[in-house]
C-alpha cells in the first residue's frame, strides 16, 4: 500500500512543531548562547582560532587513546595494524595540536583553505550541470564562487590570515546557527490554542 508523501510531510512538520513548542525555552536559550559566543568569536577571532585548535587537539587525542585501547583489546581481529596506526596517528596529531597550538592554527587554516577551494569548485560545477531553476542554480553558483574567492583571499594572506580566519568563520557559523534556533523558537506559539467545541 503506497503512502501519501504530502501526508507524511504534514505529520513530520506537526511533530517537529510540537517538539519545538514543548522545548521552546531550551531552543531559545541555546540560540542566544550560540549567537553570543559567535559575536565574541567574531570580535576576537585570534582567541577563537586558538580555542578551536585546543578543542580539536583534545578530540584527536581522546579518540586516539580510546582507539588504541579498543585496538589492543581486539588484537586478534582483522585489520589490527591499520587500526593501531590510525589510533597512534590520532594521538600524535592531538599531542602536536595541544603542544604547539599556534602551528596548529596554521595547519587547520591550511586545511580550511583547501576545503573552501575544493568545495567551491565542486559546487560551481554541480550548479552548472544541474540547472533545476534559475533561483536555485544562481544561489548554488554564488555559494561556490564565494567559497573559492574566500579560499583565495585566505591563501593569499598566509600566514597572517591563519591568526583570525578560523575563529572568524567559527564565529559567523555560531552566530547564524544561534539565530536560526532563536527564530525557530519564536516561530511557534508557547501554547496551543484550544479549539471551540
Account of the protein in words:
By secondary structure, the protein is mostly helical. Helix content is 82%, strand content 0%. α5 runs antiparallel to α6. The longest helix is centred in the first third of the chain and has 29 residues. The chain is globular. The two termini are 35 Å apart. The C terminus is likely disordered.
Number of helices: 7
Whole-number mean pLDDT: 80
Low-confidence region ranges: 193-197
Query: What class, by secondary structure content?
Result: mainly alpha
Bin the helical content.
over 70%
> How can the largest sheet be summarized?
none
SS strand fraction = under 5%
Instruction: Write down the overall geometry.
Output: globular
SSE ordering:
HHHHHHH
Distance between the termini: 35 Å
Q: What's the β-strand tally?
A: 0
Output the radius of gyration.
23 Å
Amino acid at each position: 500500500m503506497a503512502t501519501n508523501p504530502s501526508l507524511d510531510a504534514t505529520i513530520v512538520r506537526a511533530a517537529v512543531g510540537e517538539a519545538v513548542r514543548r522545548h521552546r525555552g531550551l531552543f531559545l536559550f541555546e540560540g542566544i548562547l550560540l549567537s553570543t559566543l559567535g559575536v565574541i568569536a567574531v570580535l576576537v577571532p585570534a582567541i577563537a582560532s586558538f580555542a578551536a585548535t585546543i578543542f580539536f587537539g583534545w578530540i584527536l587525542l581522546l579518540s586516539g587513546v580510546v582507539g588504541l585501547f579498543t585496538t589492543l583489546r581486539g588484537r586478534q581481529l582483522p585489520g589490527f595494524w591499520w587500526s593501531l596506526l590510525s589510533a597512534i596517528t590520532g594521538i600524535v596529531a592531538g599531542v602536536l595540536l595541544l603542544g604547539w597550538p599556534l602551528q596548529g592554527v596554521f595547519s587547520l587554516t591550511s586545511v580550511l583553505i583547501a576545503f573552501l577551494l575544493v568545495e567551491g569548485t565542486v559546487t560551481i560545477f554541480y550548479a552548472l550541470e544541474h540547472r533545476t531553476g534559475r533561483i536555485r542554480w544562481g544561489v548554488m553558483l554564488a555559494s561556490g564562487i564565494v567559497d573559492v574567492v574566500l579560499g583565495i583571499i585566505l591563501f593569499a594572506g598566509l600566514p597572517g590570515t591563519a591568526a583570525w580566519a578560523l575563529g572568524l568563520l567559527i564565529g559567523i557559523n555560531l552566530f547564524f546557527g544561534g539565530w536560526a534556533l532563536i527564530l525557530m523558537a519564536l516561530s511557534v506559539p508557547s501554547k496551543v490554542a484550544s479549539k471551540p467545541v
